Amino acid sequence: MKKQIVTGAIASALILGMSSANALVIDDFSGDAFGPTDAPLSAVAAGTSSSGYNRTVDATSSAPNTTVSINSGASLGVFSHSQDSGVTGSSQVNFDLGGFDLTEAGSMNAFRIGLESIDLNGFFGIVVDGVTGTLSSSSVLAANGLVTPSFADLLFSDFAGVDFTNASSVSLFVDGNGTEALDAAFSMVGTVCSGLSSSGGSGVQGTNGNCDIPPPPTVPEPATLALLGLGLAGLGYRSRKAKKA
């Protein structure tokens, strides 16, 4: 797992604005495919993304007698994660791509995540699964939180051993195991030609066809992340915070 820690303004790892002519939207959460899901321990809701991919949402509470709530629908147009004070857990939205070329013939080099808001120490990222069964992930810790809508780019080069021209599935995850109380909302997930040199830096969107795409792996690497668990419980970000009214 490649981890990015944003210690200053979260915009240092974000790119403002998005060119619709040079981006692939996997989901903008505008389709009312499923409603609120409460997860005393774990729950799954199924539906279809705005781009027609099969979509499932998982929510898991890591402590007994607690609830992680997630919802997405046309009324909100967001994928959201919410956990109250004293609650720890995680959630993720999964897209079955069936061997899709995420590079769009070499014109895309990064995932783009649209953020509406996220609390202090919120942790989120992407897991991608190649058709060979190789799992790899990249993530961002929003050390100072975010209240202004923006975008986060995660470069394909941060993911190990994945053939992005033949992707089986992609998941957007939120980790609330390292903080008690967390609210986060996301407006979209897709791919883009990013002008960033690294996921933690700043830059501008690149030009179509001017993207540095990592070559397909010759030998699949072992899956180092357990599906759904993602190793989130052991990331080390265990600071606690009190939920403010």
What is the name of the CATH class? Mainly Beta
Total of DSSP H or I helical runs spanning 4+ residues: 0
In percent terms, what proportion of residues is strand?
Answer: 35-45%
Please give the domain count.
Answer: 1
Structural class: mainly beta
> CATH architecture, please?
Sandwich
Oligomeric status: single chain
Give the termini separation: 34 Å
InterPro entries: Ice-binding_C
Domain Ice-binding protein C-terminal: 218-241
Pfam families: PEP-CTERM
Signal peptide: 1-23
Summarize the structure.
The chain is an all-beta fold and 245 residues long.
Report what the structure shows.
With 245 residues, the chain is mostly beta strands. The protein has one domain: Jelly Rolls (Sandwich), CATH 2.60.120. Helix content is 0%, strand content 41%. The chain contains no helices and 14 strands. Strands 1-11-10-13-8-5-4 form a 7-stranded mixed β-sheet, with no helix packed on it. Strands 2, 3, 6, 7, 9, 12 and 14 form a 7-stranded antiparallel β-sheet that branches. The N terminus and C terminus are likely disordered. This is PEP-CTERM sorting domain-containing protein.
